[in-house]
Amino acid sequence: MKFYLLDDDRTITNILKIIIQKRNLGEVCGTSTHAVEALEDIRILKPDIIITDLLMPEMDGITFVKKAKEILPDAACIMLSQVASKDMIENAYEEGIEFYIQKPLNSVEAEKVIQTVSRNLSMQRTLQKMQNIFEDSVQTSVSPTPQKQKDYLPKLQKILQRLGIIGDAGSKDIITIIEYLIEEKEDVTNTTLHELCSHFTDSPKTMEQRIRRAAANGMVNLAHLGLEDYGNEIFTEYANSLYNFEQVRKEMDFIRGKTNKHGNIKIRNFLNALLISCQE
């Protein structure tokens, strides 16, 4: 992964560069203390991940991310700030950031966030490649052996177990859906969950509800893990790969009693992420 670092404090970019290089997280292809200069740089350098400050003198980080996404729509963005304003953070997520890191920098947290964003970006690219293959390739006459077709099952079951939902009725339905998608070489991009469930039951709405309930229980379990230990391995691995991190944060706020709204789940994204994860 190639990283570009932007902060009006050169000390911050130096610290981030050390973290990335010393811990073999990727290559720092460029740094800057000026947002306008950074926009010119990323057009040429084409980084995979951009880490930017929120508050800068000539251009705020949210505006920068919006402009950067126009240049590199597939780049992932991580935002840094001492400001903890909920409205500003939500605005940043709406403009396309993947994660938010609170200043002053904690090297352990920064490393885990960078690893998570890198992993998620790799998953997204894998999914895109899979979609391209499904669209462009011709079906081969030789089918994989049943044993090879089922190699993904233990991985899928482990993920559901780590989410704490393997015993949920909806988990069996999730496994059924994932098996179908893999064996039929499909994804859920161009269909609905209701349509998928219709392949297996005369009551697709009931099956769909079980799946949504299981996915929601998984988010609740992750949120509790995050409240107990923000650096929990399961939390950092799945909070922004199977789910949207901002929505997991909302679920955490609901549990704390700070809001009366649960986090929202995009079920197709959840299933697509499971599809990729169990085949890696």
From TrEMBL:
The modification 4-aspartylphosphate is found at residue 53. The keyword Iron-sulfur does not apply. Residues 2-118 form the Response regulatory domain. Pfam families: Response_reg, YcbB. InterPro entries: CheY-like_superfamily (IPR011006), Sig_transdc_resp-reg_receiver (IPR001789), ST_Response_Regulator (IPR052048), YcbB (IPR013972). Keywords: Phosphoprotein. May play the central regulatory role in sporulation. It may be an element of the effector pathway responsible for the activation of sporulation genes in response to nutritional stress. Spo0A may act in concert with spo0H (a sigma factor) to control the expression of some genes that are critical to the sporulation process. This is Stage 0 sporulation protein A homolog. It comes from Dorea acetigenes.
